Amino acid sequence: MMLSTSHIFFMFATMFLIIGCGIISAKKIRSAEAFSLNGRKGSTTMVAGAIAGTCMGGGATVGTSQLAASIGLSAWWFTLGMGIGFIIMGIFFARPLRNSRLETISQILILSYGKESGPVASIITSFGLFFTCVASVLPATYILAHLLNISVYLASFILLLLIAVYIFFGGMKGASVSGLLKTVILWAMMLLMCHIAYIKLDTLPNFDQIFAESYWFDIYGQGFLQSLENICSLIVGVFCSQTYVQIFFSASDARTARNGAIIAALISMPVGIPCIMAAMYMHAAHPEVPAIMSMPEFAIRYMHPNLAGITIGALLVALIGSVSGLCFGMSTMVSRDLVVPLARLKTSAQALWANRICFLILITGVIFFSLYNLDSQVLTWNFLSMSLRGSIFLPMVLALLYPKLLPPVWAIPAMIISAFFALTAKSVFNMPIPPLFVSFIASTSIVVLGLSIGRKYNYQIMKGLVNFRHRIFCKKTEHSLHK
Asked: What's this model's pTM, rounded to 2 decimal places?
C-alpha cells in the first residue's frame, strides 16, 4: 500500500484521539472494581460502546472481508450471529446477570456447583477468549506491517505496546469511552465504504462472469448445516464470554444492561455488509491482493486520502480494542478466580495490580501464539473459540435461571467433556457433525443423566467422591509426616 502524508497523519490522529479519550476518562481509577467494572455505574451508552467496541474487531471487519473474498455473502454470519446473540442475552439474561452483583462467570457457577467448578470454568473460558484474541491480532499485525513497511515481528511488538496502553491505564471505563468513539467513527466510514463499493461493483464490466456461481449471493453459501453451526456458536459464545458478561455486570442496573446490548447489536450487525462488498470488488478487480488485506487496500485505493486515513486508524483501534477487551476479560477471571485466592491478596490495590500484570502476561502470550500461526484463517479461530466457550453454556444457563437444580457432581464433568469434544471432534476424530453440536450433545447428555438419576443417588455419588478425596489427602499427609 502506497501511503501519502495525509493517510499517515489522519491514521495516527484518529488512533491517538480514540485511545487518548479512553485513558483521560479513566484517570481516577484506584480500585479493582473501578478498573474491571467501572464501579457498576455504566450508562446505556457506555454499555453499548463497550460491547460494540469489543465485538467490532478482527473477525467482524478484516476477518469477514477475508472470508467474503472466497465465499461472498455467507461471510455475514459472523456479525449477524453476534448481533442476534446480544439481543437474546439482553432480553433474557440481562436481569439475572446484573442483579447477581458478581464479577466473573466462574462466580456464577460456584454459587450453584461449588468452588471446584470455578477454576474449570475459568480455564475453559480463558482458552476460548485466547483464540478470539488471536483472530484480531493476526490482521492487526499484517496491517501494521504493510502500512509501516516493517517486519511482522516489529509490527507485533508495536501492537503489544498499543494494546497494553489501551487497557492498562483505562480499564472498563476507558474501554467503554474508546469503544463508543471508535464505533461512531468506524460506522460512519463503513457507510461511506459501502456506498463506494456499491458503485464500483455496479460498474464492473464482467460482473456476471466473475460472480457466476450462485454461492456468492447466497446467505447459506457454505451449506445450511455450516451456517447453522456458525450462528449457534456465535450466540452461545457471546453468552459464555467473560468480556460481555463483565460489561453487563458494569451496568448501573438491569434495564441499562439490556438496552445497551440491544443497541450494540443493531450497531454491529450491518458492519459485515460493507466489508463483504469491498472484499468482493477487490477479488474481482485486484485478485493479486491477499484476502486478509482486501478491506484496508480498498480504503487506501478508492477513498479520499483523509477519509482513508481515518478509516485505517479506526480499523486499527477496532482490532486493538477487540484484543484488549477480550484479554481484559481473561485477566479479570484469572486474577479474580485464581491469583487473588492463591496469593491471598487482601487489599483492592493488590487485586488491581494482579489484574494488570495478568493482562500483560496474557496479551504477550497471544502475540507469540499469533506469530506462530500467521498464515491461518482469521474466522477459524473465532469459531473455535465460540465452540469452546459453549462448553459451559448449559450449566451456566441452569445456574442463572434454575440455581441448585443440577447437582454439582454432574456440572463439572459436563463442562470438561464438552470442552474436550469441542477441541477434538473435527481435528482428532474427524466427525462429520460440527464440533459445537458434538460438544452440546455431550453436555446435554450428562446434564439429563444427572437430573434423571435423582437426588438420592447424586448425594451418594457426591459422598463417595468426598470420601475418596479425603482418603487420598489423608494418605498424602501421613506420608509427608512419616518422611
From this structure: 0.74
Mean per-residue pLDDT, 245-260: 84
Percentage of the chain lying above the pLDDT 90 cut: 1
Residue 23 has pLDDT above 70, yes or no: no
DSSP state of 122: H
- Looking at the domain assignment, is residue 327 inside a domain? yes
Is residue 278 within 8 Å of residue 100, measured between CB atoms? no
For residues 123 and 214, membership in a common domain is answered with yes
Which DSSP category does 42 fall into? B
Q: State the Cα–Cα distance between residues 316 and 61, nearest whole angstrom.
A: 10
Claim to verify: residue 350 and residue 465 sit in the same structural domain? no
CATH of the domain at 223: 1.20.1730.10
Q: Are residues 310 and 413 in the same domain?
A: no
Considering the domain architecture, whether residues 364 and 480 belong to the same structural domain is answered as no
38 pLDDT higher than 60: no
What residues contact 101, with CB distance under 8 A and at least 6 apart? 40, 249
Q: Are residues 349 and 379 in the same domain?
A: yes
Cα(191)–Cα(312) distance, integer angstroms: 14
- On whether both 383 and 420 belong to a single domain, the answer is no
Query: Is 44 among the domain residues?
Result: yes
- Helix locations, 169-241, DSSP H: 171-202, 207-210, 224-239
In the block, which residue shows the cell 489484574? 355
At 214-252, the pLDDT tens digits run 778 888 877 777 777 778 877 887 787 777 887 887 788
Kindly report the number of other CB atoms within 10 A of residue 312's CB atom.
27
319 close to 140: Cβ distance less than 8 angstroms:
yes
For residues 274-289, give the mean pLDDT: 88
Q: Which residue, 132, 129, 89, 118, is CA-closest to 415? A: 118
> What does the pLDDT read at residue 26?
54
* Domain count of the fold of the chain: 2
Q: How confident is the model at residue 196 (pLDDT cuts 50, 70, 90)?
A: very high
Q: Which residue range(s) make up the domain with 463?
A: 406-483
| Cell reading at 259 | 438496552
Residues 364 and 415 in one domain: no
